[in-house]
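User: two proteins, same treatment. go.

Assistant:
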Amino acid sequence: MTEPRRPDTLFWVEPSRVVADTITLDPGESHHLLRVHRAERGTPFEATDGTGFLYRCRLTEPSSKAARGEVLERVEDAGELPGLLRVLVGLPDTRAAETVVEHAVPLGVSGIVFVTCERSPRAPLGASRLERLRRLAIAGVKQSRRSRLPGIETSESLPAAISAAGQGQRFAADPGGTPLEQDKLRRPQLEAIIAVGPPGGFTASESEVLAGADFSFISLGNNRLTTETATLALVCEVRKAMILAGLRDI
């Protein structure tokens, strides 16, 4: 008898719905598994709850409202970078913030903080907007087959965001900076924090705050970039350096 074909989609399960060796999908994910992929009892599938595990499962209860699966294997940190990459972004407009989340999450960032800077066009993000960005982050985790859901937060000031960012090598996008050297990241501290200004960039006083917090200023070339483009460009630069640093340790 032919084994059921495993769907190539990674399914999302809330952490509270993982109990021992059983996961229970919500109605939306259950519908996708059963109706779109035509899964039946015994079909293998993979899911994540964003806490660092990819679950390899077998469908045991094909309910359209609460499909259940038996966890056969847990793979820790599947699809993750070899280190932590946190992003501080000067708060742009709504669509630009969504673009940052949609594209930075598949690139492996571990957290995004939208910072209200002196040139930000709006106040800190509210609960409903943060929830919308969290849903976009979940979609990015599924699409890229990651196992950790990045935190999406907001901060009322750059000093507060830097203070809460934790340890790691620090890089800020700045037209007057120097290109990032690909061997810049070091072990054992394979963690990085990057900062990108809002539309119009960081002010002189904010640049002083960054310099005082040991940020290295990185040039992204001669073109004028939007906040979202600069964020993704710097994420890619640091991501590549991080991967190379990880490979050097193997």
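Protein 2:
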Amino acid sequence: MGASRRTGGSRSVERRAGCAVTLRHALVALMVIGFLCETASSTQAQGAEAEAMETESEGMARGGVVAFGLSSDEVAPPEAPPPEAPPPEAPEAVTAIPMEPEEGSRHAHSKPSSDHAAVIRHFGVGYLGRVQIPGASNVSVVGARYWLSERWGIQAGLGFNAGRNRRDSEENPDFIRDFFAGALHVGAPFVLHHNKHYKFLFVPEVHFAVGTVDDERDPAIDTDDREIDTFVFGFNLKAGAEIHFGFMGLPKLALQGTVGISSQFSTQRRRNADPADPSQSLSTRTRDFAFSTVNFNDPWDFFAANIAALYYF
């Protein structure tokens, strides 16, 4: 009886131990299953979040494309960058050949073909010649010239001469002369041909001039008082050459010499004291017309009347 009780007690202990082991195994299995479930749910949540972000990015891209008037199907893939260009080859040396500029063109090429081409559309100032006024003094004209194009230019100038001459005696002034002369000159030079430092030109020109001379003498000595008023209109046709001093490094300095035909019309009025009655005067009027080639009385007249000097700016 005692042995059977001991046997039954040991079996009961073994059963209890087996149940405890089984219970521990079940708890471990439950813990493993819980861990796996938690891991799976976390992975699923991360995938859903990534999918939501991808969907949001795709929506923004589609919205940007629609904002520019394009559908997502019409968006072209980015083009490949163009290949790099090869380095440029060294240019070959080219010898510049001077060319004549076109008529009226000042900028046909960077370097003018002649000194005249360099002064087109420039002003030149200087001495333009001399005007002769019968019965009065001669007038030297100073003015300006402007080249409108390669061929045509314009020029204008003014000149005047005024003064008083007086001779005194011991008691009374013996002789007094007041005089004035003025002239207006206008011309239109035309270039026939030009080369490096010179040009041949033709110059039609007109001038208007006035002169006044007033002589006064002491009536007790001489009653021959005189007043002379003169008006002059002249027309000249001249031809010649203009030389630029570019060969000396002064291309804007020019000297012009011309000869040609001159025509001049003048009218003159003289008033003289009447010898019978010095308080009265006698008046006479004369008209003259002259047509001739350019002439001069002495060598200096040639330079004064036919030479002009200009400097261009």
